[in-house]
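Readers of this paper often ask what the protein records in our data store actually look like. This encoding replaces a full spatial description with a residue-level series of whole-number codes. For reference, a complete record is included directly beneath this paragraph.
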Amino acid sequence: AKAIIQPVVRPMEPVNAEFRPVETPVQKPAGRPVKLEVVNVEVRARELLSKGEFKGAESLLREALKHLDPAQGGELRTRLILRRELSEALRFQNQLTEAEAELRSLLELCYRELGKDDPDTLTTHCYHATVLTRQGRNEEALKEYRLVLDGARRIGREEEASTLGIMKNIGETYKDIRRLREAESMLSSALLL
């Protein structure tokens, strides 16, 4: 089952942050061949983000995305993941307008290609809510988090750890805007699941 929120980051060995196209295919567990650099670029970008090397992560992701041309068959879900990570790199650099534009564009793509309740669509809403919160647009962020929570419930994922994280985010956002009863209610509900 796909996670609705970000995948778990596993400990990893240091890797070179330079993007190098490799023509040697490797096999994913599902048996579909993919190029080696596509498999590793997300891991390398996450490592750079965790080290605070946001510009390096941004450059790596932009370069990788150039090689995932949709007209050339670049896999949709891979592009979604890399573009969401790009929005994170932008958010960490406080380039919030550009991060938001990237996420709005992704949401349009998700709705068109995957539908409103697809886990990738819900994940993108969550990233968007995070950017809105950073911009101080908490009411809009709450709407986004609510979309994610409602979608998780519709697809039967209300008891997953990622959904509990969303509930916590909603509670914290309520707290930030001094809606303390709603914050307490949401955080209490999360504890009961």
Q: What stands out?
A: The CA atoms of residues 117 and 151 lie 5 Å apart. The first helix runs from residue 36 to 50.
